[in-house]
Amino acid sequence: MPVHGSPPPAHPATAGPTGRPGAAGARRAAAGKGGPRYGTGRRAERLAPYVLLAPAILIILALRLFPLLLGVNFSFTGDGEHDGQPVGLDNYAELLRDPLFRTALENVGLLVLLLPVAVAIPGLLATFIHLRVPGHRFYRGVYFFPAVLSPVIVGAIFNLLLAFDGPLNSGLGHLGIGPVDWLGDPDIAMFTVVGVHIWATFGMALVVFLAGFSTLDPSLQDAARVDGASLPQLIRHVIVPGLSRTLQFVVVTTMIGMLTSMFGLLYVMTSGGPEGSTYLPEYYVWIQQGQLNRPALASAASTVLFVIMLVVGLAQIALLRRSGRES
């Protein structure tokens, strides 16, 4: 019989050895008191990432996705006397009939073929710097300098160097090689502009490669050297598989840069010539919008350029992933 004023005895299921509530009883009591608050806290934790991401998602939707959809919709309208009127696929049919746009598409194919060169140059230089081969200090000191120059400045510099009577042809003349019309020959002008673009932009890709090298396991490289692996074998079997994700990023960003960042060089060095041989979709869009005042046709060309970048980028990623699994 309990004494007056003493606490009631604990339930046997919840009482500890001393008669006080045990751990199970304490947890049950805490759950009874704070259950709703605990559930609310878990719900807030689950919603917190979405709340934090909401501003960025809204910015992307407002400034990226909506203008893209607006441009695609605008490509199905007319220009001139049919301004704003739906014309279906007429703009796309006109693009396919335009020889300048077909040349621009052919040059896109040329860029895809030259992409391995644009990726290999910074990749090899980053490898030399990482392996500390002779001359790596020189490359480390000067590799990023061209990336800080404006494309207009780069184009003006190479216009002087590559002129028909410029320093490069003068040097070739001393070697007994005739002068080359680097920017006036339709067969080589596009190669010249792409080469200048690679020289001016490979510094950014090299920085990405150097960051990727910092994630490699040094023990794998040491083991390969101990086994007598040559430099080409080390690059093929150790470095390239270890940099697969870095390589995917560099390939895609380099391709996008070649398709969308060569306008300044094209405008300064060739203005789309000679004979339209250096047209790219980006330059074609500017001509239609800025000079011919045909925004609907320019929107159609922009849509085609977007689809090309999407397809090429996804195809490159798929090929790189497959080659990474095979290696």
TrEMBL record:
Bias kind Pro residues: ranges: 1-11
Intracellular or extracellular location(s): Cell membrane
UniProt keyword list: Cell membrane, Membrane, Transmembrane, Transmembrane helix, Transport
Transmembrane spans: 47-66, 108-131, 143-164, 188-211, 246-269, 296-320
Gene3D superfamilies per UniProt: MetI-like
Region of interest called Disordered, as start-end residue ranges on this chain: 1-38
Lipid bilayer topology: Multi-pass membrane protein
InterPro entries linked to this entry: ABC_transporter_permease, MetI-like, MetI-like_sf
Pfam families for the chain: BPD_transp_1
Compositionally biased residues, Low complexity: 12-31
GO terms, biological process: transmembrane transport
GO annotations of cellular component type: plasma membrane
Residue span(s) of domain ABC transmembrane type-1: 100-316
PANTHER family reported in the protein's UniProt record: ABC TRANSPORTER PERMEASE PROTEIN, INNER MEMBRANE ABC TRANSPORTER PERMEASE PROTEIN YCJO
Family per record: Belongs to the binding-protein-dependent transport system permease family.
Protein name: Sugar-ABC transporter transmembrane protein
Organism: Streptomyces xiamenensis
